[in-house]
Amino acid sequence: MKNQEPLTNSINKRLKKIVLLLIILLVLALCGFSVFFMFSLSPVDQNTDEYTEFILEKGWGTSQIADTLQNNNLIRNAFIFKIYVKLNDFSNFQAGTYRLSKNMNVNEIITSFTTGTNIVENTTKITFVEGKKIPYYVKKITENFNYSEDEVMNLVNSEEFLNKVIKNYWFIDEDILNKELYYPLEGYLFPDTYEFKKDATIEDIILKMLDAMGTKLNNYKEEINLTNKSVSSLLTLASMVELEAVTPEDRVAVASVFNNRLKVGMTLGSDVTTYYAVKKEMTTSLTLSDLNSCNAYNTRGTCVKGLPVGPICSPSLSSIVAAITPSESDYYYFVADKNNKVYLSKTADAQDRVINDLKTQGLWPE
Nearest Cα to 311, choosing from 163, 128, 130, 126? Predict the structure, then answer.
């Protein structure tokens, strides 16, 4: 009987160790599950700014919603989504088409479903194409909203509104108040695809496009300061580059030609400015009278020695970047063939030879 007591003690010690080990393993498992649980509730991609349209059908239960969200890569784990919904007693999900993003966490997605805040039907999506003029922007707005062209144009030309944007946007100054401008905000409305509320005001729409331009320019603020040029002049140059060249590489080259000519006091001689000056579409022909007209925009005439008085269209980001950071070159001339490929020359004689070669090859635009 005396030998049984040490044996019992030994067994008890072993049991205690096993129980302790099990407790430790349980705690570790709970900690691990907690970390996994929280990770599963986090956004799939925190850095994206892209959105996906997600259709939540009427009558769907939590399981179908969770599985469809996971299949669309909008949540990390459908099982955890279901647990989270159950624990928080979420209900009354509203059917509809939602605008969701991978940068939204599970709670944000569920909030959208319970409140209907991101339902697409409440918005209107409009694409504004680069290289277009203010009248095009006005028409796009009136096609999608119950506003007349006069109402939109009155706002973008309103001195009160212009003074407001001068005050609120660092990249807009009193250059837009120049009376020779056809449209004060020409070149400042960034071309992109936007989503507006259906009850958006005209001012809401214009300010959203100005906000987008500010966001793009903010990324190049240091480079802009190094140019020692006004944003107005850079956007003017960018608008010319937009209409003269198509590829980012050609746009940088064309910007360098314009800069070289400006440095030595040469006229820019750009037909695209004449088209804008005489208010003709570029699908028509320019007359000798058009080319020689004295106008604050026309760089083919004798009145404008440098840049036009303001932008002649809404430039794309690649044209803006080309204007801010043009390449270094010793070219002073360029032409484009009928396929929009740009050819650079150092002298007028060299350019004449390029033109003759293009005509011989059948590449000269008629």
Answer: 130
Please name which of 63, 51, 65, 74 lies closest in space to residue 120, comparing C-alpha atoms: 51
Contact 305, 269 (CB under 8 A): no
What are the angstrom distances between the C-alpha of 110 and each of 80, 180, 195? 13, 53, 22
Structure tokens at 245: 């060249």
Q: Say what the pTM is.
A: 0.70
Residue pair 25/33 in contact by the 8 Å Cβ criterion: no
Identify which of 6, 76, 83, 68 has the alpha carbon closest to the alpha carbon of residue 41.
Answer: 76
| Spatial distance between the Cα atoms of 40 and 206, rounded to a whole number of angstroms | 39
HSE toward the beta carbon, residue 348, CA cutoff 13 A:
3
Task: Please give the single-letter amino acid code of residue 177.
Answer: L
269-295 confidence digits (pLDDT tens): 999 999 999 999 998 999 999 999 999
CA 294 to the chain's CA centroid? 36
Structure tokens at 302: 């004798």
H or E element, residue 126: strand 123-127
The 10 Å CB-count burial string (b at 16+, else e) for 178-189 is eeebbbbbbbbb
DSSP letter (8 states) at residue 103:
T
How far is the C-alpha of 206 from the C-alpha of 156, rounded, in Å? 8
Residue 318 amino acid letter: S
Give the pLDDT confidence score for residue 232 in this predicted structure: 97
